[in-house]
Structure to design on (182 residues):
């Protein structure tokens, strides 16, 4: 069976050997065996790529402004954290509900103590340097808490929004879906 498929592919590749190509040949493909072989290969690569590696994601919400716009588009690289955990400062995409994904920044790692005083994040009682936070507003307060094992603490970059409008906190590392491609 495999030998026969390889023979057909080899024959298709040999059939289309033309030396004098024109512009029309480039834009208007001939419906021959080689064309369908290329088309099948492109479909297979796209299927694998978009089923297992990249997932299109629509960004809706202001919690990651100005790093990401309130409305936008990115791809989720599902292989980014397959063999490792994200580091502090990484932006991740996590599963929030059945078909809802969230874009958030990793702030604290397992075993660390996080606290927010007047909008300033402290990790293990040291102020966290957050150059990505452009505006601070609202009254952000969070009592000290230890991040549990196998969990990370995530939050959005837009701290000018009221704390009540953010979805953030400890999440299981199993809910990490991937990383945004850009």
């Amino acid at each position: 069976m495999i030998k026969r498929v390889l023979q057909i592919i080899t024959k298709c590749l040999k059939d289309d050997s033309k030396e004098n190509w024109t512009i029309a040949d480039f834009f208007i493909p001939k419906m021959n065996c080689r064309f369908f072989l290329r088309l099948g290969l492109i479909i297979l690569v796209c299927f694998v790529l978009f089923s297992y590696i990249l997932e299109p994601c629509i960004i809706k919400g202001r919690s990651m402004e100005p790093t990401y716009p309130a409305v936008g588009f990115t791809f989720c690289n599902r292989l980014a954290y397959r063999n490792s955990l994200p580091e502090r400062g990484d932006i991740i995409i996590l599963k929030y509900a059945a078909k809802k994904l969230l874009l958030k920044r990793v702030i604290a790692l397992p075993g660390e103590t996080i606290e927010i005083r007047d909008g300033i994040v402290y990790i293990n009682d040291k102020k966290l340097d957050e150059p990505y936070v452009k505006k601070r507003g609202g009254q952000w307060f969070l009592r000290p808490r230890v991040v549990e094992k196998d969990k990370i603490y995530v939050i959005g970059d837009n701290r000018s929004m009221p704390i009540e409008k953010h979805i953030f906190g400890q999440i299981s590392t199993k809910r990490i879906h991937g990383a945004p491609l850009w």
Observations:
- The first helix runs from residue 2 to 15.
- The chain has a mean pLDDT of 84.
